[in-house]
Amino acid sequence: MIYRIVLLALLTHLVFCFQALATIPDPCGCDPALLKVADNGNSDMQIHVAYLYLTGKEGVQQDYEKARYWYKRIIDAHLADGQLLGNAYLRMAIMHNYGKGGPQDYQKAMECYKKATKYGYYDAHYGIGCLYMNGQGVKQDYQQALLWLKVAAEHNHSHASLLIQHIKKQLDVAALSHDKEIPSTKG
Asked: In whole angstroms, how far apart are CA 109 and each of 23, 42, 84, 145?
């Protein structure tokens, strides 16, 4: 009888330990419970999981490919509210722009930035302005860059005003050098 009690206690303890292990998050990845909720289509959880992989916070190993996967799921499903969808577009734009989690693709970055602007993400205006300023994925166009950067600056983007000043100086220098190249018709 005592053996049965000890055996029952041991089995109960083992079951408890296995249940506890099942709820401990993988030290290199997300908590399986979070992943399950995200995988079932919960857009709030999907954006959280994507952010964890993007930033490597809360003990999750940073993994740009997984972050890109989750942001793409949000975008493809179109079920998230505007703020979450805009956030996903902005993050995907940045990842395309810098080649994080996949190939660098300025044209896809531009597409995602433009979609993010529709949801009020002024960082996206800044990103578009930078692409035009640098001629990345588009023909270099300082006037277009200024238009997009001015919107970002009007909404207090911290770096937009500096880039606007830089572009204006570039335009002034270009105008001065152009004036020097034009021969005088007086003579």
From this structure: 37, 25, 18, 15
